[in-house]
Automatic annotation (TrEMBL):
Its main location: membrane. It is a multi-pass membrane protein. It comes from Operophtera brumata (Winter moth). Signal peptide: none annotated. Keywords: Membrane, Transmembrane, Transmembrane helix. Pfam families: Claudin_2 (PF13903). It is found in: Membrane. The chain crosses the membrane at residues 48-74. It comes from the Eukaryota. One of its GO terms (cellular component) is membrane. This is Claudin domain-containing protein 1.
Length: 106
């Protein structure tokens, strides 16, 4: 779960940085100060790796949820089994008897 949240946070930071650089930051090397001809003729696309990255984040979240639900189911099953086996435990009785020989010193 932590891994998928960390990856989603990294992607969000990347999106935020991209937005901030393109829309907010002013400087001669940033998009806001580019000449109009350069802005009109430049294209940005991320191709398939962008989609694959978000699919990886989503699938890691799904796997974390499935592992958590499996752990919850196994815990409930173990508790039910322990409750059924509780009737076989008889407090105060030992499973075996031992005898002690008491001798007095001479």
């Amino acid at each position: 779960m932590k891994g998928s949240l960390l990856a989603a946070g990294a992607m969000a930071l990347w999106h935020g940085e991209e937005f901030y650089e393109k829309e907010k930051v002013v400087g001669e090397e940033y998009y806001q100060q580019w000449p109009n001809i350069l802005r009109d003729n430049s294209r940005v696309w991320y191709d398939w790796s962008y989609i694959v990255a978000w699919c990886g984040v989503g699938l890691s979240l799904v796997s974390a949820i499935l592992f958590s639900s499996a752990a919850i189911c196994l815990r409930g099953e173990r508790e039910r089994e322990e409750a059924l086996n509780m009737q076989y435990l008889m407090p105060g009785n030992l499973a075996f008897h031992t005898t002690f020989k008491i001798t007095q010193p001479a």
